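Hey, quick one: can you model this chain's 3D structure?
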Amino acid sequence: MISEPTDLADFSAAALVRAYRRGQASPVEAVKAVLARIDAFDPAVNAFCWRDDEASLKAGALSEARWARNEPMGRLDGVPATIKDLLLMQGAPTRRGSRSTDDAAAGEDSPATARLREAGAVLVGKTTTPEFGWKGVTDSPLTGVTRNPWNTGRTPGGSSGGASVAAALGMGALHVGTDGGGSIRIPSAFTGTFGLKPSFGRVPAYPMSPMGTVSHVGPMTRTVTDAAMMLSVMAQPDARDWYGLPDLDGRDYTIGLEDGVRGLRVAYSRTLGYLDVDPAIAALVDDAVDVLGELGAIVEEADPGFEDPWELFTTHWYAGAGKLLAAIPAERLHLIDEGLRRVAAEGADIPLAAYLDVEAGRRALGVRMRAFHERYDLLVLPTLPLVAFEAGIEFPDALLQGRWTNWAGSMYPFNLTQQPAASCPAGLTPEGLPVGLQIVGPQYRDDLVLRAARAYESARPFAMPKAPNVTHQAG
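Sure thing. Here's the predicted structure for all 475 residues.
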């Protein structure tokens, strides 16, 4: 059993709201606890790139006054939250991890930021990202290296690495991430937190990602219930996103969350037919899948039957990077991460005909997965085939000079198909590093993914680290 927390920084969003409603805690106390936690832990992990403690405490006081009148602004009133620094937050700079940007304060919120603010969440800061979110680890020329709380010599993954680290260490209860090729699920797996990449368009986005229609916005938390609460708020439509899905009558994703998995048809694909999975990870995920069976799911080993869509994905991603850097003034290009410059150069050379061929391949992949989900309600697999590796590098073996996409083959297929996919903590390897169980649902069935994740979480609760495990030399 996991003991109940006593420090407000360790409370879930759901527990904080219950405590506020009962008069057992105040938003000001919760904000102070989170700010103290950031002061204590962030020097070791570098998860935050911007804070305004005075504004956070003022927002906490306003929330406290609303709760005293029993007039909360919304279902997240007084809950500390963070925003990834790819997204707009009014009054805060949007540096995107790049020295090529400036520190002017944003004049508006992104849709996700706006919905959280309208629901009363207290936005305590912005979290780190690699430059423009271009890779699956979190380090940048602007903010340096973000580190894994389980072992600070290891990467937390990326590109939403700062958000995952903040979640793991109680530096806020709710965290907004983005996922264009695994950027929510990779760091969730590496840090033992929960992250959901919703169906594309479920959470409106503005401005649109330069990587186009593979990029999703979603919740990152310590509990599935908190993610469901967060999605219910963020999924409201926004006229600025032409791709945004229509309102589902204000759907509450916590309704039906406890319905379990009994009778659901679940396909288990250990390797997707092409992954080389670490044996320690395979063993933990095998055990996690057995738990789903014990909970009543009808589990069958089955591969979706597609080849690694690496070329489909990288063509989209590299072309987006090429377009992104084409808009940066020539005199600032030398400030850009060298790896991003190389990817952008490749993207700039992609012919239109080749891009259109890849679009056709992407459509075929989406059709295949829709047919697959005619037979299976869910697909489960290891979130990643490897454990967190050395911080500050893009590829686990620097001598091989690979790209992050070479180890993220379990991630990007579901960005191409725009399906909902989540990573749940599935235990620790013998060396004490987290492993993730990925749950993939049919397009637009975010509710089903959350429901299965909650069933697994209930059966196998997972304890977060009490403090960063500092193993690296500072400097």
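One thing worth noting: Residues 352-375 form the longest helix (24 residues).
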